[in-house]
Amino acid sequence: MQVVEVCETKHRNLSDEMVEEKIKDIKTRQGKVNNIRLCETHGSKDFQIEFSGEIDDAIQRKIKIFRYSLFKDTKSFEHFTTLKMPTKKYETFFDDLVMDNSALMKSLEHFYKVLHYQATKVDVSYFNITKAILVYGPPGTGKSTLSRAVFQRLSIRMSKDTYLVELNASKIFTRYYGDTTGALSKILNGLEELSKTTTIFVAIDEIETLFMDRSVILENNEPLEGIRVVNTLLLFMDTLKYNKNMFVIFTSNFYSHLDPAFVDRCDISLMTSLPNEKTSYSILSRIFKKMMDKNLLEYEDIPDYEDVPNTSIIKAYLSIKNQSPRKIKKIVFHNMPLRKTTVDFLCSRIAKFKNSESQKDKKL
After folding, report:
1. Could you give the CA distance from residue 241 to residue 225 in angstroms, rounded to a whole number?
2. Is the per-residue pLDDT at 355 higher than 70?
């Protein structure tokens, strides 16, 4: 069975027959054309879910369509604000992500499996499933973007209203310093109360600020407030097993700083890493294609890395290797001229820019 997502508007509603006709123009899974995305397939063998690869015509003969509209609505509560999902704000996040590993697809697969078993009345709490995922890795590797992209896709699969709550752990710790435990309890109680009537997704960034390893806190004779915070959060995670309406993704830059009891309670821990050569090529080519769409670059065909890579992009990559996706975008911006240019010219500037930066670092 082939899963298809269709984004609809007031002025655009496609019949099933029209959708079936249009998806013939999409060549790979996760490909998107005119607000129609060809998603994963559910094969007959071992009930396997395939998120990537070429299209299997035999499977595509049977499709399941998820239709959705985008929202801009927000609602403020005492300690947090919600975004109605799926939100227009994060609609492009999934397509913007380019990663070496399968963290994005593994996150989706896990939550889709939870939804499947919940629909069949299986009590996943028996398996100690908390519906919480930890994503960790170096800064700028797309952890926060991943969490929003996953929740955006997850909301499309659910027929009822869903909302996203975004929290930054370091801001909670700083804002309520001295009474972090009390403030955190109010936030968590508010989330639990809201989840009684609707499905909510919770994205908590920089979780190492709150879930610090308790043994380290004791060894360093730090205030016991830190231990109380961790204990409060652990109790909250224990309740997640029985809460069918709450899904959580934590992100962290420092996996080694996290309390082991917290990591153990997460269903899965996924690492994002700095891009390799192939991924860096994909990031640069995607940036350049978007610049062409905005008339900032002369149009030209950019082949996939597996085919015949663009040599100028490879040269640019060699000068920016070991940089995060966030840093790569900044480097491209710093080298954009104030006029329309070519891929070759921009790549040559990027190479020179990084070489000059390296020389500065050596002098320092």
Report:
1. 26
2. no
Same domain, 57 and 85: no
Q: How far apart are the first and last CA of the chain?
A: 59
User: Tokens standing for 206?
Assistant: 């920089």
Residues 229 and 281 in one domain: no
* pLDDT one-digit tens code per residue, 91-120: 999 988 887 768 888 999 999 999 989 989
Query: Taking residues 337-351, what's their average pLDDT?
Result: 92
Q: What angle do CA 127, 131, 134 make, to 5 degrees?
A: 110
Which pair of tokens denotes residue 57? 């015509």
Are 153 and 108 spatial neighbours (Cβ–Cβ below 8 Å)? Answer: yes
323 vs 316: CA distance, rounded Å: 12
Amino acid in position 86: P
58 with 1: CB under 8 angstroms?
A: no
- CB of 348 within 8 A of CB of 312? yes
| Percentage of residues of the chain with pLDDT beyond 90 | 50
Helix (H) or strand (E) holding 333: helix 325-334
Give the tens place of pLDDT for each residue, 291-328.
Answer: 999 999 999 999 888 887 888 888 888 888 889 999 99
Mark whether 262 and 348 lie in a shared domain.
no
> By residue range, what is the domain housing residue 50?
2-68
| Interacting residues of 82 by C-beta distance below 8 A, sequence separation 6+ | 74, 75, 163, 164, 165, 194, 200
Count H helices and E strands in the chain, helices first: 14, 12
Query: Which runs of E-coded beta strand occur in 191-310?
Result: 199-205, 246-252, 268-271
Q: What is the mean pLDDT of residues 77-89?
A: 92
Q: Tell me, yes or no, whether 261 and 283 share the same domain.
A: no
Domains of the chain: total:
3
Residue 38 sits in the same domain as residue 7: yes
| 171-194: average pLDDT | 79
- Decide: 201 and 247 in contact? Cβ < 8 Å: yes
Q: Which of 245, 165, 161, 250 is nearest to 204 (CA)?
A: 250
